[in-house]
Amino acid sequence: MAYRDQAFPDRALHLHAARPVGWSPAMPVVFVHHGVRRNGRDYRDYWLAHVDAGGFLAIAIEFPDDSFPEYLWYHFGNLRTKDGAANPPEAWTFGIGPRLFQALRDQGITTAPRHGLFGHSAGGQYVHRMLSLGYREHVAVAVAANAGTYAMPDLGIAWPWGLGALGLAQADLPPLLGFPLTILAGTEDTGTTGAHFPKGPNSMRQGPHRYGRAHAYVRTGRQAAEALGMTLAWELIDVPGVGHDGARMSDAAAPLIAERLRR
Question: How many domains does the chain have?
């Protein structure tokens, strides 16, 4: 179905839902974020096999290219314009999911207090950056899989490869580092020749491929947590034998998200 967020009334999104047979509003919701191909219907289909066993409603939020073009609107949340000017927070696309969840609660579609969150590839970029900027209040469990680049938890590295140049302070890091974020890394996601693999110098500093960058992100998080005298709450899970595959990474994430939603 077409959906228009209140902050972007002239930019349509598409919602693709997979509902379990025994659905009731007491069951939780999982928001699923697609990759660079903007193929929300496919990602909904990847989760069809999991909603009954998991006992949740999966909603794939599709950001069509004609409404939210290129990486600035999606991967990087529309914090900056093409010429580098800052957009106000109300124009950030990271607010779309929280507002959608509130709308689902207001309409009685779900009574769950919190939801799950999954993103693969470009969706993994969107999910972890969204969480990094504080959109965590109603998220019970979040999984970012096979992201191409990361916003390292380092205020000395400028956005979007770090959290610098955003006006954040050291006090903003502990809530992020203490949030139970799971990073899924396909052990075979080591290709570097694809058209959508980020190859710029800032990206390459994070590692030679997506698998290496996932490990670098969690390693940087651990170092940041140790410097603050705290324990990192993130978890890194390797998915053996899987490359850049949204379906198989969804298969790996779904049982994990279902178990944590039941806690």
Answer: 1
